[in-house]
Structure to design on (750 residues):
């Protein structure tokens, strides 16, 4: 190759060395940068191959989507027997809610997104009008689901079940526990000894015992603490327990947020002559809540997942429906299919929540880091 | 008086106290009225009458003629057992995943990421039921059990492994083990002092490890191998002998371990990422080997960030083990708060005991954590 000469300043940019750019370069840097790394890659590929091969075969290729029983399934193919789900999909979604009235659940569920939209997305157009709807929504949802007014057929609580029950428990628990959690967090930081001690006791008690014992209390003991003759639905009692339980966790998360606010903020507020409630409303909470968003959403996700525990006290959430299906001799032994289906539902909803929290965190991030 | 901050605070507190007292007395009155109507009282005597139910997995001797109290203790020990296994599994898996998640290998890191996302977004109860279902429904009957060298068996009745039985002469092995441990402690101290004085480093870990491992081994052969193995054998429809891990315990251990591992992985990752980049760069620039960078610079600092959330995960695991009741593993909630409650009808007393036990465990561990935090807190500033 002949040597070329260039004038100073006119030397052309050389291409980067081969193996550092493009697909090949990326593979080399990210998968085969050293011997141990290459080994790890090979192990991962083999693992993935068997996993994907097995999953696709079992889930789709060899699966049976409709049959009369497990035995009928096995006669057709030896993969998953999804018939246990497809035959009972109505129960999995609505529980034992009367079939003719299920449109009420559909409408409530769809309008829930409209009601939540202005709360979740601050930039949404016509936010103010939507907010009026959000305030009005709980009454709307209650009437529509329970019935008994406006000529709607009254539905008993005991018929609720399936994913609908999960969503009802989760949303009610989440909506009620945030305000209570904020109050508890403020109480724990309060100057008033009595208020502080009470908050600490409540929080520590709720965080110290397993949720399942609280649910037992709700199902078997709560009536003892109420005037004789009072009786209200197990659903309400369970929602109260969920609210208390997750409020305690939220309180701790928010307390972390409050403690992270620099002291100068309070001193500045004092210097402006603000009183306690002004300080809380305009200085403490806006900053503390913003810091604690990831923790709050994690608590919500935890609460949402914990709604499955109601199966232990006999409510028919998706797991309860699944267990009832498995108790049927026709479907006996199809536990993997049933539980994986329910797991998929939880994965989708919880993953969506955690993605939303990431989005909100980025949006509110005013840090100049 | 209302305008003075001090007096206002006192008035507010008195009002709160008044309402609290009123609320509590209202609750007590209600309980009294309800109990009177039902003809019940509060008494803990039921603890000492025979329980009358069987428990299939126990660490201390138990049969159905023993008291409710003993059944409760068996349950408590079972809770401890599953928490112990679960914590070991969760820690090992979680740390491995957390480190893989940070690895430069794109593929491995993505696999770890999706593992974490899939596992932690599915309720723990589902994990437990899923594993239980897999063990019960897909593993073969004891007669066709999967065996490893005909000594360890997997079947839908649980896992059976050989059980070591000590014979006479084992004392020598124990003695040698104690000697080895004492030696290694003294040796570490000696090496530390030597290093402080001269800067010479000895391979302390490997020397201690081989002493503790080989000394008892030598004693074991010297005394004529005083350990025999009781190998599980198929008798009738199930195995007899050996150590038995019931399907419930196995399912619960897997589920709790795998679920909590996802959270631990995130904690470990966050802990390592929290260490300033400069620390690693500085350590590398003074010529430390990668393993020393990790062991001497990164991990000691990351530990401070990792340990508090890690303990709270351990606590969560222990509390989550109460879900055992869904698959019939006899833990504290299933014995005392489950069958004993149903048999005696003493909801108040049993739930009170169960809650108090969990509460005291949680509170003492948090107290320990606070003490640890104050000990390792960065001093100064």
């Amino acid at each position: 190759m002949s040597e070329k000469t260039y004038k100073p300043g006119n030397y052309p940019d050389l291409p980067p060395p081969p193996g550092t750019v493009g697909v090949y370069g990326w593979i080399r840097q990210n998968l085969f940068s050293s011997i141990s790394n290459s080994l790890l890659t090979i192990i991962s590929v083999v693992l993935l191959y068997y996993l994907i091969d097995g999953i696709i075969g079992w889930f789709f290729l060899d699966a049976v989507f409709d049959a009369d029983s497990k035995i009928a399934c096995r006669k057709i193919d030896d993969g998953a027997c999804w018939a246990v789900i497809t035959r009972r999909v109505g129960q999995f979604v609505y529980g034992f809610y009367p079939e003719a009235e299920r449109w009420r659940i559909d409408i409530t569920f769809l309008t829930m997104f409209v009601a939540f939209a202005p709360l979740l997305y601050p930039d949404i157009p016509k936010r103010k009008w939507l907010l009026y709807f959000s305030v009005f929504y709980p009454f709307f949802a209650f009437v529509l689901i329970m019935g008994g007014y406006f000529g709607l057929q009254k539905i008993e609580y005991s018929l609720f079940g399936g994913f609908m029950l999960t969503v009802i428990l989760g949303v009610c628990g989440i909506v009620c526990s945030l305000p209570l959690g904020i109050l508890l967090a403020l109480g724990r930081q309060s100057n008033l000894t009595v208020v502080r001690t009470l908050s600490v006791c409540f929080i520590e008690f709720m965080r110290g015992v397993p949720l399942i014992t609280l649910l037992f209390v709700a199902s078997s003991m709560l009536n003892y603490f109420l005037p004789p003759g009072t009786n209200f639905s197990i659903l309400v009692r369970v929602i109260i327990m969920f609210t208390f339980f997750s409020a305690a966790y939220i309180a701790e998360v928010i307390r972390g947020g409050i403690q992270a606010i620099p002291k100068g903020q309070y001193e500045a507020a004092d210097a402006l002559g603000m009183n306690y409630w002004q300080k809380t409303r305009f200085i403490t909470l806006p900053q503390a809540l913003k810091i604690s968003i990831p923790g709050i959403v994690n608590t919500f996700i935890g609460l949402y997942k914990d709604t499955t525990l109601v199966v232990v006290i006999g409510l028919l959430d998706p797991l309860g429906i699944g267990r009832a299906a498995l108790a049927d001799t026709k479907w006996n032994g199809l536990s993997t299919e049933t539980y994986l289906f329910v797991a998929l539902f939880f994965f989708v909803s919880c993953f969506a929540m955690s993605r939303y929290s990431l989005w909100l965190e980025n949006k509110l991030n005013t840090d100049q880091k | 008086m209302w305008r003075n901050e001090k007096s206002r605070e006192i008035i507010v507190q008195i009002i709160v106290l008044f309402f609290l007292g009123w609320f509590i007395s209202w609750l007590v009155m209600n309980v009294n009225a309800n109990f009177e109507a039902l003809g019940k009282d509060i008494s803990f005597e039921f603890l000492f009458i025979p329980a009358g139910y069987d428990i299939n997995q126990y660490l201390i001797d138990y049969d159905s003629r023993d008291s409710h109290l003993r059944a409760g203790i068996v349950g408590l020990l079972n809770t401890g057992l599953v928490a112990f296994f679960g914590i070991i599994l969760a820690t090992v898996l979680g740390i491995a995943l957390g480190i893989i998640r940070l690895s430069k290998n794109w593929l491995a890191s993505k696999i770890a990421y999706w593992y974490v996302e899939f596992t932690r977004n599915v309720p723990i109860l589902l994990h437990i039921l899923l594993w239980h279902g897999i063990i019960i429904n897909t593993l073969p009957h004891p007669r066709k059990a999967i065996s490893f060298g005909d000594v360890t068996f997997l079947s839908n009745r649980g896992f059976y492994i050989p059980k070591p039985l000590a014979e006479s002469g084992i004392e020598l092995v124990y003695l040698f083990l104690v000697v080895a441990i004492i030696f290694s402690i003294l040796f570490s101290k000696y090496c530390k002092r030597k290093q402080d004085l001269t800067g010479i480093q000895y391979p302390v870990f490997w020397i201690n490890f081989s002493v503790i491992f080989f000394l008892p081994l030598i004693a074991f052969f010297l005394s004529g191998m005083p350990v025999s193995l009781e190998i599980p054998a198929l008798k009738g429809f199930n195995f007899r002998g050996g150590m038995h891990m019931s399907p419930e315990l196995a399912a619960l251990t897997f589920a709790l371990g795998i679920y909590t591992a996802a959270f631990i992985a995130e904690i470990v990752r966050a802990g390592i990422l929290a260490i300033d980049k400069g620390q690693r760069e500085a350590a590398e620039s003074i010529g430390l080997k990668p393993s020393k960078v990790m062991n001497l610079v990164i991990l000691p600092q990351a530990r401070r960030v990792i340990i508090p959330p890690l303990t709270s995960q351990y606590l969560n695991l222990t509390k989550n083990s109460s879900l055992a009741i869904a698959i019939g593993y006899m833990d504290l909630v299933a014995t005392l708060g489950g069958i004993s409650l149903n048999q005696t009808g003493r909801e108040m007393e049993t739930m009170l005991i169960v809650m108090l036990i969990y509460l005291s465990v949680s509170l003492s561990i948090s107290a320990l954590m606070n003490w640890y935090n104050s000990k390792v807190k960065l001093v100064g500033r």
Q: What stands out?
A: The first strand of chain B starts at residue 146 and ends at 148. Strands of chain B lie at 146-148, 152-155, 158-161, 163-166, 227-230, 233-235, 238-240, 243-245. Chain B touches chain A through 54 residues (CB under 8 Å).
